[in-house]
From TrEMBL:
This is Apple domain-containing protein. The keyword Signal applies. PROSITE patterns: PAN. CDD domains: PAN_AP_plant. The lineage of its organism: Eukaryota, Viridiplantae, Streptophyta, Embryophyta, Tracheophyta. Residues 207-300 form the Apple domain. Signal peptide: none annotated. It comes from Juglans regia. Pfam families: B_lectin, PAN_2, S_locus_glycop.
Length: 343
């Protein structure tokens, strides 16, 4: 067919077709296809080997309107959260890709990508685009550049190691600027397998608390954090951050909370602000400067009391806990740097 769809038909009328390529793709999604529950993109085995590879892209069966890349039978990347008011904005797919995947059907586009003031693009505007599941696990969106006569990469995920889902494991945080040791345990935690954690490049096992204490009465505020989805059943509206932390303390399973002020502001005493709760564990943590989110993590006082104080000022700069300039303050396991005031 002119669309590029190869159709096997029982008769010339094309009314019935036992098989068509748009419903049985390999690694590429083209305009005219529709991403349904049963459609999966499967990568090539290698760059020059079109056999079935180990990476797939499909709708997430556990979360509505969310997409997932599976590599070697494990989650490798997830698109941004579609429900509620807690989107992972850097991982949300481009609106143009949402149009492509839904075959320009407004009912097939998640609410968080809809723009009621803007009309959907026509099929013609996306004719020369494609979405490819690469054999290295990266999802790529490309458009045809007529002047250069080649395909131009417009968008891809994951972009780096920290973009890989839960790269540092539970209670581990990733910072792409801390090369080569991208992962570290949160303050008050230690690697489950210390040798594997520090000596290898596989950090997925994650971290555990320094002690077995159940008296998790202290909150550590971790700045600019990207984090996995909160528990959808425990979110609530609160008046302030203290009330949010209190709700976390009242739940024995709560390990972290995040307070988010209403976008339009709220008058004092009104309970219009969001309180997000994580129970049992937190994962997919990343220090992310573009995320204006401060995560409050519950820890035992005994696990951090030896270093639970801020360092002295470095010149004109305040050094907040857990940042460290030495062994006697902050948490050197979290982030250590030299304070040089001689220049």
């Amino acid at each position: 067919m002119d669309s590029g769809n190869l159709v096997l038909s029982d008769d010339d009328s094309m009314e019935t077709s036992p098989w068509e390529s748009f419903k049985n793709p390999t690694d590429t999604f083209l305009p005219g296809m529709t991403m349904g529950d049963k459609l999966t993109l499967t990568s090539w085995k290698g760059k020059d080997d079109p056999g079935s590879g180990r990476c797939t892209f499909k709708l997430d069966q556990e979360t509505e309107s969310q997409y997932v890349v599976i590599k070697k039978q494990s989650v490798y990347w997830k698109s941004g959260m579609a429900r509620g008011k807690f989107p992972s904005s850097d991982d949300i797919i481009l609106p143009a890709i949402a149009d492509l995947l839904s075959n320009f059907s407004k009912s097939g586009i998640p609410d968080y990508l809809k723009n009621p003031t803007k009309q959907l693009p026509t099929n013609r505007s996306l004719d020369l685009t494609r979405l490819v599941m690469n054999n290295n696990g990266q999802l790529q969106y490309l458009t045809w550049n007529e002047s250069k006569r080649n395909w131009s990469l417009i968008w891809s995920k994951p972009e780096d190691e920290c973009g890989i889902y839960n790269y540092c494991g539970k209670f581990g945080s990733c910072n792409i600027n801390n090369w080569p040791l991208l992962c570290k345990c949160l303050p008050g935690f230690k690697p489950i397998n210390p040798f594997d954690y520090w000596e290898s490049t596989d950090f997925s096992v994650g971290c555990i608390r320094n002690s077995a204490s159940t008296n998790l009465s202290i909150f550590l505020s971790l700045k600019n954090m990207k984090v996995s989805d909160p528990d959808p059943n425990l979110g609530s509206n609160v008046a302030n951050e203290t009330e949010c932390e209190t709700k976390c303390l009242e739940n024995s399973q709560c390990v972290a909370s995040l307070y988010q002020e209403a976008e339009n502001g709220t008058r004092r005493g009104e309970r219009d602000n969001n309180c997000w709760i994580w129970k049992d564990l937190i994962e997919n943590l990343q220090e992310y400067p573009n995320q204006d989110r401060n995560l409050s993590v519950r820890v035992a006082k005994a696990d951090i009391e030896s270093t639970a104080r801020s360092c002295e000022r470095c010149g004109t700069y305040t050094i907040p806990y857990p940042l460290s300039t030495g062994q006697d303050c902050g948490d050197p396991m979290y982030f250590f740097f030299d304070c040089n005031t001689s220049s």
